[in-house]
Amino acid sequence: MDFFERMKHQTGVCLNDVQQQAVMHTDGPLLVLASPGAGKTTTLNMKIGYLLMEEKISPDRIMAITFSKSSAQDMSDRFDEFFSELMNDKVHFSTIHSFAFKVVREWLRKTKQDFQLIEGNLNGEELKKGWDGPDIPLHKKFILKKLYEDTNRSQITDDEMDELMTYISFVKNRMVEGKELEQVRCNVKQASSIYLEYERFKENHQGKLLLDFDDMLTYCHQILLDDKEILSKYQRQFEYILTDESQDNSIVQHEIVEQLAKPQNNLCVVADDDQSIFMWRGSDVTKLLQFEKTYPGGTVITMSQNYRSSQEIVKASNQFIKRNKNRYAKEMFTENPSHKPVEITSLRNYEEQLSYVIEEISKAGPEEEVAILYRNNSSAVPLADKLDKAGIRFYMKDIDAKFFKHWIVEDILNFMRFSYNDRRVDILERIHTKFNAYISKKQVAFLRKRDGQASVFDTLANLDLPDYQHKNIKQAKKRFKEINEMEPAKAIRTIRENLGYDHALNKMSEKFGFNAEHLMSILDTLEEIAEGLGSLKGFADRLKDLESLIQTSKFNRHKSSLTLTTFHSAKGLEYDRVYMVDLINGIIPSKDDMETYRNKNTAPMEEAVRLFYVGMTRARKKLELLTYHYKGKERVSESIFVMNMRRIVQPAGGSTGKKRKRSSPDLSDESLLTLEEIELGKEVVHRTFGPGVVKEYGGDQIGIQFAEAGYKELLLEVCIANGLLQKQTEKV
Fold first, then answer.
1. CA–CA distance from 585 to each of 444, 591, 628, 639 (Å)?
2. Residues contacting residue 596 through CB under 8 Å, at least 6 positions apart
3. Would the pTM of this model clear 0.90, i.e. be above it?
4. What values do phi and psi take at 362, rounded to 5?
5. 8-state DSSP, 246
6. Are 81 and 264 in contact (CB under 8 A)?
7. How far is CA 53 from CA 27, 29, 63, 265, in A?
8. For 605, phi and psi rounded to 5 degrees?
9. Each residue of 344-383: pLDDT tens digit?
10. Buried b / exposed e across 214-246, counting CB within 10 Å, b at 16+?
């Protein structure tokens, strides 16, 4: 009985021919391209079993590396499930970070250097140092906070801290240095200077080397380059190296693996270039695409049979991912039965989308596993609110309660608090620059010295003020009094529109580089939560309840069949029903994705395509794509990816009538307009109607105001497929 027959008999695992090829390839470099649902973890574990049982390799000569702790644990659990009763051997499944840290610690001991980790949980001694003193806690966030304030002479916001940390992780994982640091996009002022100062700070702080998580990788890489003794030790120890989820590896991670695998290069890389979705933190699909160049004579095997999804989901997903050009050509297929077509639901507005998805989820059977997937965590808060009000329990995979601590949320609550008591100078001090009473710092300082028994507006009105400010202060007092009596949703709209908060945010965004779109989406979410609540206090209480609900939802993993999660965090998971929500341009793809694409940089758009593909391939039986036309009062357009999917799942029907044959247009002509380049206000030229401006688009139609022919609504698919629209050439 051969190995595979024994495995079938003893473990119940039956591998197909391609999986068996991957298992038996033991000499030289191998890239296994595994489509979604192709059984890669099972195949990888069987390969390890084959090395141990058939090739008689000692378990300590095998290193199995994956990207995350959860993946490493999953692989380890699956290995035990298959082989614990067949052998006592135990292979160590490790993350790349944990291996790298082992190498770094060994080198530090060897060179007699002291070190301290500055990322993760703060220890008690560091906490005692306080937050604002000269001797700040030795923790990455506090060090960066201090360096930002020293560099920019202003406080760093939570959003800026997140972006700065992402920037630092990106440049370290991509091994970016020198002048190239300034070429990496980051909306934080002086980001490259702060990064360089941060690196200098860590190198020798009171005779101690400070390390963050990314340093584990960069130091390990440099140690393996410089210290031949340590490199040789690990090269001799590990005869076989297997890496899973390799599409998520950064450049520095790929290079660590490349060094360890030499000289025999008995390396098995399991990956799917179509599921590489972490470019923002340094992953690089290019390394995978260059595998055969890096390893001449290496073998590439494609596992393209999907064991997870229905015929319809597999066919649609396989067709969709082909819009990307930088990928390995592959044809995903399945022998699973048909179920039902992929559904596309277009709703009038965002509120209808929320109501619709709640209604659909309530129809799911008690044993069905259901997921609502979204690109941004901000989508989760209104969903959690609606689900809770509907009495539907949920599990949230990504707990992100930062929304409730955001300064925008605090601003709105402060506006409401001030409406209760307009004598409170302490609250006015936090919001006076964010509404249209034009109250200066000097005036706030004057108010602080007063006894605080009168309304701040009355006190200011008695001063010698310009006429326009007298008028605005009088109006502001009236507005705040009215806000106190309003229902919370109306109060928020009044703060935004009548007190000028939206206008103030746009000005701040221009000045400080904030993402205005993100800030407005937080306000939209607050309005959603406020709908139907009767008092301002009720709104504040609801925010507290929601924060608690989201934080405790992590305990519902085994109590609820409904999961809320981002596309990113859903990778590797599967569900009976999947609802992909908020599928509009500006979210997926994002505005940045579309802008860079128009500037001939296709990488971010291709990653957005992969992200959409990952979401689609989580579904076993039912996949529904949800889009809408209005978010609040703003007209939005459905995602270009949804438009692509319409063409795939709802192809234009043939006609029995005869049509005059027309020569096909050359769609490679760069002057022709593509779907990705369409945006409101875009100047175009129609083959028949001449020049015009795009006024509306969404669904299967585009509205164009033509200079001579007037306004016309045209079928988007017909215009694009027949090359009817050209880009307007720039006027000289």
1. 42, 7, 10, 4
2. 602, 603, 604, 605
3. no
4. -65, -15
5. G
6. no
7. 16, 21, 16, 21
8. -65, -40
9. 999 999 989 999 999 999 888 888 999 999 998 888 999 9
10. bbbbbbbbebbeebeebbeebbeebbbbbbbbb
